[in-house]
Amino acid sequence: MSLLLQAYPVDSVSQMQQTVNLAPVQEDTNLLELLMRGGWIMVPIALLFFIGLVIFVERYITIRKASRRETGLLPQVKSNVLSGKLDSAIAVCRSSNSALSRMLQKGLTRVGRPIKDIEGAIENQGKLEVARLEKNINVLGIVAGIAPMLGFVGTIFGVIQIFRDVEIAGGIDIGSVSGGLYVKMIASASGLTIGILAYIGYHILNMMVERVILRMETDAIEFIDLLDEPGS
């Protein structure tokens, strides 16, 4: 102990104790309070988060419902077509009320015309069904691009305000500057996080739509091959 006192004078030791005692105590801040410190820019960022969440949940449920495979639809349509019961086949499609059933129904209403006309009718109906599945998905892409930029804008405005306060005060207070930057970086972190989540959701929905399209195309080709068989 004496060696320590010799190495550090009493004044230095007392100053170190004061420094330790004067160290700022960190405040316990919950997530909501922390986000509210980001400033006015957090309002449009929160709005983008809400829009993106609603669109993702709504599209996910819709696409998931459309991706359910109706195992009995195509066999029933095939059986009725081979038996020459077109009206029954159309009735089966109407009762199903799915993307594939609407495509098959459009093709069945064209039976008797050239196969190219039937293919064109099914293809056009398929485009409409895909457009319904992809509705509002591009909005997620917009959110993914705008949210990080809004966060960055909030940080820039915050830095401008900090330096303006420094200019008015006529001096630099490291505590206020670092604290202000800490608060303003919340906007950038929030915008970037929401942008990443929207980007991930956008690609998840697109992959789900692609799987549905592939299955519809496969079933449509099988149906056209059935109509194109001799004697059908």
TrEMBL record:
GO terms for biological process: protein import. Keywords: Cell membrane, Membrane, Protein transport, Transmembrane, Transmembrane helix, Transport. It comes from the Bacteria. It is a multi-pass membrane protein. It is found in: Cell membrane; Membrane. One of its GO terms (cellular component) is plasma membrane. It comes from Sphingobacterium corticibacter. Its main location: membrane. This is Biopolymer transporter ExbB. Belongs to the exbB/tolQ family. The chain crosses the membrane at residues 40-61, 137-162, 182-205. The keyword Cell division does not apply. Residues 97-217 form the MotA/TolQ/ExbB proton channel domain. It holds the Pfam family MotA_ExbB. The keyword Cell membrane applies.
